[in-house]
């Protein structure tokens, strides 16, 4: 007959194992409202062999009293954090997105120059707002004072309600929208034949990266987990690039999106993964804009170079997984 001690011991062991797994799990933050975070989720579900939890958030969650190890965000928000947190590091490019502007022909718009004097809907202080400014300056020859930006909300599923950018465009309170997807696609569909679309990814495309901190990377155990997670992201990149037919239904369900809409915007997303080779060149002019918006001094080019850490990805690709 087993004693009480023999009966309790297995339970204690099981609880100890479960607690150890939870305590050492990677915690990854990404905004659940954007398509871009989905590789982070699927990598944790399909390919990462450790324990990982993806929570709603972004790069700001890496700081303060936080147990977040990794975070996904557009480069604009990372620059905002890096100004005061020089221990932030970019370690992987999850996806690059060629933003677009859609305008209404009814507003007399057929070229970018026609946006002079118009109201353009976007989300202030984000990659979308930077895209509008940079695109219109570089390709349209327009100064900031030549048009008015109007704040509005994103929309992932039609019908888009009042206050969202597609609704505002269709109902004429703004003349154009510059935004990430699927808000832009839904705005196009809302206008129908009255839509005119502008796009030039050589001027700007969102670079949605994965970030961590030097503190996390200096911890041998955490770094090992992060390296393994980057291998999982590489596998996920192949899935998103070469087998979109299997991924789109999953992402659509996660985002509560229409599959046809997601399929329509899939081509403006580059899921190849890795680390954008021109990331430094992207960050330099972008920080000048963020610094102006945030009313701070610009970050030195030396510091911007330090922000990019390619060693983690190099480590992930140089050695096989041991997990």
What's the number of extended β-strand segments? 11
Radius of gyration: 22 Å
User: Class of the largest domain in CATH?
Assistant: Alpha Beta
The order of strands across the largest sheet is 2-1-3-10-4-11
Helix percentage: 40-55%
Order of helices and strands: HEHEEHEEEHEHEHEEHHHHEHHH
Q: Based on CA inertia axes, which overall geometry fits?
A: globular
Major beta sheet summary:
6 strands, mixed
Number of domains: 2
Describe the structure.
The chain is α/β, with parallel strands linked by helices and 323 residues long. 44% of the residues lie in helices and 17% in strands. It has 13 helices and 11 strands. The chain has a 6-stranded mixed beta sheet with strand order 2-1-3-10-4-11, sandwiched between helices. A 5-stranded mixed beta sheet has the order 7-6-8-5-9. Helix 4 links the parallel strand 6 (119-122) and strand 7. It is globular, with a radius of gyration of 22 Å. The two termini are 39 Å apart. Residues 58-244 form the SsuA/THI5-like domain. This is SsuA/THI5-like domain-containing protein. InterPro entries: SsuA/THI5.
Summarize it.
The chain has 323 residues and is an alpha/beta fold. It is built from 13 helices and 11 strands.
């Amino acid at each position: 007959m087993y004693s009480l001690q023999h009966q309790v011991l297995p339970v204690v062991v099981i609880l100890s194992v479960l607690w150890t797994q939870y305590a050492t799990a990677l915690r990854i933050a990404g905004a659940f409202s954007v398509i871009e975070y989905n590789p982070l989720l699927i990598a944790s579900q399909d390919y990462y062999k450790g324990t990982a939890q993806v929570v709603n958030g972004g790069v700001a969650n890496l700081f303060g009293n936080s147990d977040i190890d990794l975070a996904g965000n557009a480069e604009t928000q990372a620059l905002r954090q890096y100004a005061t947190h020089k221990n932030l590091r970019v370690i992987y490019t999850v996806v690059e997105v060629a933003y677009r502007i859609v305008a209404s022909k009814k507003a007399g718009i057929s070229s970018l120059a026609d946006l002079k004097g118009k109201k353009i809907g976007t989300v202030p202080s984000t990659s979308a707002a930077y895209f509008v400014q940079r695109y219109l300056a570089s390709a349209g020859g327009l100064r900031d004072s030549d048009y008015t930006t109007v704040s509005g909300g994103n929309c992932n599923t039609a019908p888009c309600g009042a206050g969202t950018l597609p609704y505002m465009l269709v109902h004429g309170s703004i003349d154009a929208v510059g935004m990430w997807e699927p808000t832009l696609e839904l705005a196009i569909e809302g206008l129908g034949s009255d839509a005119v679309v502008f796009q030039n990814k050589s001027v700007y495309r969102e670079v949605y990266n994965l970030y961590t901190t030097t503190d996390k990377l200096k911890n041998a155990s955490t770094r090992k987990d992060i390296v393994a997670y980057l291998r999982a992201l590489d596998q996920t990149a192949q899935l998103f690039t070469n087998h979109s037919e299997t991924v789109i239904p999953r992402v659509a369900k996660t985002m509560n999106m229409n599959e046809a809409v997601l399929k329509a915007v899939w081509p403006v997303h580059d899921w190849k993964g890795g680390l954008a080779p021109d990331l430094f060149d992207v960050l330099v002019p972008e920080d000048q804009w963020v610094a102006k918006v945030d009313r701070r001094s610009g970050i030195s080019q030396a510091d911007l170079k330090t922000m990019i850490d390619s060693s983690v990805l190099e480590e992930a690709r140089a050695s096989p997984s041991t997990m």
